[in-house]
């Protein structure tokens, strides 16, 4: 009897020790949220709307990355989006936009779609996809990417075509964390390799009449030459019809998928074969998804595409 009483006492004592640990663990795994609101300039409606940071991040994630992607890829994108957003906000030293913290115009800042457009985009998968993105945002709540204690310029693009570009290649500004890195995970991207024909009329309109006249009078495939390439393999200097152009200017002015291209001329114009989609700097979205499928975590993804960065709570960033 005494032994039974002793065992009961010890069992109760053990339970008293375990219960607080369970409570603490439950608190640690409780749902987190990004705190505070954000003022968003809705460019299509020409007005400012204040919304929760959670809703803004979910809406931006919905616009910028396929919701069908792997969880760890979505988490990496969520951190990139949050970091980019914070860098634009005046409270963290950014410039804001037209009285708001950020714009929904992707040509200015990041794309964003509200719930109505999310329903239209996803159809009967709306509930599942929205919850999936909400989880990615909340699982990384408050986390941002920094370099030397400061928010990074968290750039991203669709597909790098096997290797990302450095910031210096594209904008002639070297940033230590935006260097060219290899990427073997994006080969299944739907726009990994594409052909685009540009007519001579469009070349004239976008590159100038001299290029058109000289191109039209030429008679061979060497009408277009990539004179040299950048470290990542993208066109650096391109000669078209005897005129020289910067590779990224050709990409921008002719609306090519990528600056990683080859080209040939025919009687109707110039056919560009592009590899990858986007400017190629920073996080490669299809590469991130490939890394996630291979078992890499969102932190692995972020530290690969943004070299030397730290992922840390935004509360540690000094506000202005």
Radius of gyration from the alpha-carbon trace, in angstroms: 25 Å
**Class computed from helices, strands and strand pairing:** alpha+beta
Number of helices: 11
Question: Approximately how much helix is present in the residues?
Answer: 25-40%
Largest sheet: 3 strands, mixed
How many structural domains can be distinguished in the coordinates? Answer: 2
Listing every helix as H and every strand as E from the N terminus to the C terminus, the arrangement reads HEEHHEHHEEEHEHHEEEHEEEHHE
Question: Quick check: average pLDDT?
Answer: 88
The best one-word shape is: globular
Low-confidence stretches: 8-13, 15-30
By DSSP, the count of extended strands is: 14
- Beta-strand percentage? 15-25%
Strand ordering within the main sheet: 2-1-3
Task: List key phrases describing it.
320 residues, alpha+beta, 2 domains, 3-stranded mixed sheet, 3-stranded antiparallel sheet, 11 helices, 20% strand
Structure description:
The chain starts with a helix and ends in a 7-residue tail after the last strand. It has a three-stranded mixed sheet. It has two domains: 157 residues, no CATH class; 83 residues, no CATH class. The longest helix is centred in the N-terminal third of the chain and has 27 residues. It has eleven helices and 14 strands. It is globular, with a radius of gyration of 25 Å. The chain is of the alpha+beta class and 320 residues long.
């Amino acid at each position: 009897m005494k032994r039974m009483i002793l065992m009961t006492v010890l069992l109760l004592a053990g339970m008293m020790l375990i219960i607080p640990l369970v409570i603490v663990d439950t608190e640690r795994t409780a749902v987190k949220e990004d705190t505070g609101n954000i003022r968003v300039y809705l460019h299509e409606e020409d007005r400012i709307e204040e919304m929760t940071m959670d809703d803004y991040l979910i809406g931006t994630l919905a616009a910028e990355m396929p919701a069908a992607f792997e969880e760890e890829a979505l988490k990496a994108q969520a951190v990139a989006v949050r970091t980019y957003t914070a860098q634009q906000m005046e409270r963290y030293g950014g410039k804001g936009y037209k009285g708001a913290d950020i714009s929904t115009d992707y040509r200015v800042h990041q794309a964003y779609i509200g719930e109505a457009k999310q329903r239209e985009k996803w159809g009967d998968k709306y509930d599942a996809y929205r919850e999936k993105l909400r989880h990615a945002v909340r699982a990384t709540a408050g986390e941002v990417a920094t370099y030397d204690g400061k928010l990074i310029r968290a750039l991203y693009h669709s597909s790098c075509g096997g290797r990302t570009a450095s910031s210096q290649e594209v904008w002639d500004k070297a940033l230590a964390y935006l260097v060219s890195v290899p990427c073997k995970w994006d080969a299944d991207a739907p726009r990994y390799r594409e052909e685009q024909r540009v007519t001579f009329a469009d070349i004239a309109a976008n590159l100038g009449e001299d290029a058109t006249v000289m191109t039209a009078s030429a008679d061979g495939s060497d009408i277009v030459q990539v004179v040299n390439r950048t470290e990542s393999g993208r066109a650096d200097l391109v000669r078209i019809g005897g005129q020289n152009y910067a590779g990224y200017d050709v990409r921008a002015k002719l609306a090519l998928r990528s600056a990683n291209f080859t080209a040939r001329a025919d009687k109707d114009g110039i056919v560009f074969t592009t590899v990858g989609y986007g400017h190629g700097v920073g996080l490669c979205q299809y590469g991130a998804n490939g890394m996630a499928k291979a078992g890499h975590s969102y932190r692995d993804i972020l530290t690969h595409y943004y070299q030397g960065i730290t992922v840390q709570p935004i509360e540690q960033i000094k506000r202005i």
